[in-house]
Amino acid sequence: MTLGLFDDLPPAPQAPEWLEPGAVVLRGFALPLAADLLQAVAHIEAHAPFRHLVTPGGKRMSVAMTNCGPLGWISERSGYRYGPVDPETGKRWPRMPSLFQQLARDAAEAAGFAGFAPDACLVNRYAPGTRLSLHQDRDEGNYAHPIVSVSLGIPAVFLWGGAQRADKARRVPLLHGDVVVWGGPARLRFHGVLPLREAEHPLTGAHRINLTFRRAG
Ligand code: SIN
Ligand code: FE2
Questions:
Q1: What is the model's pTM?
Q2: Is 16 among the domain residues?
Q3: What residues sit around ligand 2, an ion, with C-beta below 5 angstroms?
Q4: Structural domain includes residue 197
Q5: Are 149 and 137 in contact (CB under 8 A)?
Q6: In sequence order, what E strands does the chain have?
Q7: What is the DSSP pairing of strand 120-126 with strand 156-160?
Q8: pLDDT tens for residues 22-53?
Q9: Is residue 133 part of a domain?
Q10: Would you say residue 15 lies in a domain?
């Protein structure tokens, strides 16, 4: 039986799924903003195109990346770094939309980290087959701030590991609109993404877009 009375209401907020203290999955948290977020990504991409960076070890990353905000994350033969200028265009990274800042702040607060003000947003684009191997986010210089990660488009399986690379990683399915926040005692956990399976999403086609918000400076 359906209760017609409630048909027009937005879906009820889902309970936070804690991975461990300091790390939480907020299901559907970004869903109401998804279309606007993706429109903003199209604008960012027009000024700072997606590119496949090369790791310091000389490997081409399968994830395509760009950035917005005062600082952008860059991988080069000489190492990983944050910088204000896109090496590809010689110009500053596109500004971070206020919608992005507000979402990052709200998600961090829902995870217990009030007052998060990101100065960097890495935009990752995955196609079927794209993966991201286990790593720590440790180029930020100050680990007091959390990481906020927003999933859009086709599904992925997020790997949530431990303090050591060899620690067993838990598999966490991430869907369009899901947000993961990790900070505090969980800030330096290893994490990654399994190779994406073939899929289509009405808003992104055969792509997954991930926004990761950081405080890098
Ligand atoms: C990242 O670790 O930077 C991205 C994680 C993700 O794509 O979910
Ligand atoms: Fe990461």
A1: 0.94
A2: no
A3: 137
A4: yes
A5: no
A6: 17-20, 23-26, 64-68, 72-76, 79-83, 120-126, 132-135, 147-153, 156-160, 170-174, 179-182, 191-193, 208-214
A7: unpaired
A8: 999 999 999 999 999 999 999 999 999 999 99
A9: yes
A10: no
Helix 98-110 and helix 34-47, axial crossing angle in degrees, nearest 10: 130
The C-alpha atoms of residue 19 and residue 182 are separated, in whole angstroms, by 9
Residues of the chain with pLDDT under 70: 1-12
130 Cβ closer than 6 Å to some ligand 1 atom: no
**Overall residue count recorded for the chain in this entry:** 217
| Ligand number with the minimum distance to the CA of 65 | 1
Query: According to the model, what pLDDT value does residue 6 have?
Result: 64
Going by DSSP bridges, is the β-strand pair 23-26/132-135 parallel, antiparallel, or unpaired? unpaired
- CATH number for the domain spanning 92: value is 2.60.120.590
208 lines ligand 1 (CB under 6 A): no
Ligand 1: atom nearest CA of 151 is 8
Q: What separation in Å is there between the alpha carbon of 115 and the centre of ligand 2? A: 21
How many domains does one find in the chain? 1
The range of the structural domain enclosing residue 89 comes to 33-55+64-214
